[in-house]
Write a structure and sequence with these properties.
Length: 61
């Protein structure tokens, strides 16, 4: 029984890893390029992504 559980854990970890490989990753430096705010157009809406002085990201509509 323990062996089956371990096999299940391994399978789930492999599936999780494969899903992570499919995600697109963009470095925030490439987005902001010297600015502290960018506008993201999503469908019919505009969103503002701001970089705070402390390095956090804030997304507002």
């Amino acid at each position: 029984m323990y062996h089956s559980y371990m096999h299940l854990q391994t399978s789930n970890n492999s599936a999780h890893s494969a899903a992570n490989d499919l995600r697109k990753s963009i470095n925030s430096d490439a987005l902001f390029t010297g600015n502290n705010e960018i506008v993201i157009q999503h469908r019919e809406q505009q969103y503002r992504l701001r970089l705070t002085r402390t390095g956090k990201l804030i997304l507002t509509k």
